[in-house]
Amino acid sequence: ERTFRLELKLLADVGLVGRPNVGKSTLISRISAARPKVADYPFTTLEPNLGVVLVGSRREEISFVVADIPGLIEGAHTGAGLGTQLLRHIERTRLLVHLVDVSDASGRPDVVKDVEVILGELEKFGAGLETKPTLMVASKIDVANPDKLKTLKQLCNRRKWKLYLISAVTGEGIDKLKFAMAAGVERMREQIASLSTQEESV
Fold first, then answer.
1. Are the beta carbons of 66 and 31 closer than 8 angstroms?
2. How far apart are CA 176 and CA 183, in angstroms?
3. By the 8 A CB rule, do 141 and 102 touch?
4. Confidence of residue 46 (pLDDT cuts 50, 70, 90)
5. Distance separating alpha carbons of residues 5 and 20, to the nearest angstrom
């Protein structure tokens, strides 16, 4: 007699990550046909939502799956806020899009801490999550706090991260981000295909 525990993890090309209420659900509803619950309070999303994104012309169209991962809080790697369950889903994504709220809607005053909390939780969880290719995104720029946006830009310059500015409400910067996602996904797919070819030749 044996007891087995089966664990289902989502499989998506892109995972949207960030603190609660940074605009992940609004973004996925803007770039795909997914219609998650969207509201102006933390923990609106309690389980990941998936959406298919199409980029480019019909002849050269690229499609990829995006997962809207519920907001992570400090201590997520120990299970806080369903953290370990959510972090396990991130294991099966190829590219991360890290959203940072630069408005005052979240009530969190320090964007640097917001970034550090997410990076810290990914690293503490293990499984190489902190090494995944990541796009940094400043969200809600239509109502941005100029000081927060400036601070985030300075952080990204120091870390040599490219920063994308978007508003999922007005649509500003959305197309540029979509093409950046598509390019990142294609690079990962090419790397995986190359590794598979090498393994077959061996």
1. yes
2. 11
3. yes
4. low
5. 29
Q: Which tokens go with 8?
A: 């289902």
Closest by alpha carbon to 53, among 19, 29, 75? 29
Q: Distance between CA 188 and CA 121 in Å, rounded?
A: 23
Q: pLDDT tens digits for 90-123?
A: 888 999 999 999 999 988 999 999 999 999 988 9
Place of tokens 């830009």: 153
Token duo for residue 87: 């972090």
| Half-sphere exposure of residue 47: CA atoms within 13 angstroms, side-chain side | 3
Q: What is the pLDDT of residue 77?
A: 53
pLDDT of amino acid 125? 84
The whole-model pTM stands at: 0.84
CA 160, distance to chain mean position in Å, is 18
Closest CA to 43 of 83, 3, 90: 83
